[in-house]
């Protein structure tokens, strides 16, 4: 097994489950009598407890941020690029925690788990979570793990928004905050793309009002289409041209017949959609996109972002990715400027890349160096 | 900024000040200010390698073009705003100066003096745009697009209602006294401590 684990990897990791037997009330008033959170940790919590870092995942992410679940796993966790011994989030120094958000589908209580009151899957009945709910639920997990303060809370996209919410909701808990490819709230265009994704899922004949599991069905066509639309917004036009151009899929072009000619980009999107449609829960996709739509960092302060961030005590790293058109650099600049106006310590970078919104997940030497150098200020020196 | 410039500016910064360094480069100056003057500071630079080097020194840095990025800093947000040897590279030096004295209670500006006798000699006798060790690039590919002299700068300050608090000049070893006496002719560069008039 050891031959297959690359250097700099946290190696094989085992997810853990924390069971919360006290009621948890969502912001919308609905409560769970009990719930479970699945999470992974990398590195060791030190005796002074000042080296804990929380990673928040994005829309389709999970608690599996780094390493492998088995030695022969083909793909490591979603942020393996950044987490590991000697990597920017150095597990030789830091204790890293990543949990699956409540309402997701990778093991934490969510639409695909059993509702203890009915003995059936929650399905469409699972409460709508919001970002501040996830923050409160992660605070419970932190206390459960014996952590009383995060040396850093960090994430990209929705995860970056969650990190910012942490810094606002529990200022004394967050010493450093990293928000990558984030935004203070969604634009009408962002919400519109999410609505197209939801519409695809809800109009799938196998949706069954969200109770497809009970009906023994899966709305895979809807989820695949939702993913194709979503995935498109994560890539940049230049990045797609470089990667696919107008190339046709091998063997898809025969001059003498009328066989379908499939462009590489079509084939890629179909593959992404179909793989995702069997791995990701449709209800979760609906809940996650709605949570994104509802996210509004300045919401409780009448739209005044500076006022919203004024109680934060963290030092901030805000980074955007030049070709990101889902949450473009300008959205990060809004966060940066509000932080500066509120007198906070902030570093801002706009990483030059063709990788689009996915830039925070993909290799880029400036990005990795910046994160590495900035992270040296996190945790005990 | 040369070591000499740096020492001069260091002496002008009150310990504990909040400093904004525009075009902070590798962050060496801000780091020295922090270590020797106990300042808290923010650097601004557009170059990603400079950004990373500055971050590695534990500094806060904003990646931004100082030509159009100064609006993001609040009025009176800093004690001192520093612009070292970059005035001549700006698209609109007068707008930047005005903004600097709004953002900071004081500003420190340094620039190469185009009125220096060697520059005049170069232009006057050779009839060519001056080049020197400090200004090694040809006119068509130099980042220095807005050269000025000591006199030009002081007259702009007066037009913009900017008070000059202090001036220091840099001159070659043989011309140090002359540089103080006739700065427009003998100073190779000049450093100014300025503020909004009436403050």
Explain what you see.
The complex is a heterodimer of chains A (381) and B (199). By secondary structure, chain A is of the alpha/beta class. Chain A has 2 domains: 262 residues, Rossmann fold, CATH 3.40.50; 95 residues, Rna Polymerase Sigma Factor, Chain: A, CATH 1.10.1740. Chain A has an 8-stranded mixed β-sheet, sandwiched between helices. A two-stranded antiparallel ribbon of chain A has the order 2-3. Chain A has a two-stranded parallel sheet with strand order 6-7. The longest helix of chain A has 16 residues. With 199 residues, chain B is α/β, with parallel strands linked by helices. Chain B has a single domain, classed as Vaccinia Virus protein VP39 (Rossmann fold, 3-Layer(aba) Sandwich), CATH 3.40.50.150. In chain B, strands 3-2-1-4-5-7-6 form a 7-stranded mixed β-sheet, with helices on both faces. The longest helix of chain B is centred in the middle third of the chain and has 11 residues. Chain B is globular. The two termini of chain B are 27 Å apart. The model of chain B has no long low-confidence stretch (mean pLDDT 92). Chains A and B meet through α9, β14 and α10 of A and α3 and β3 of B.
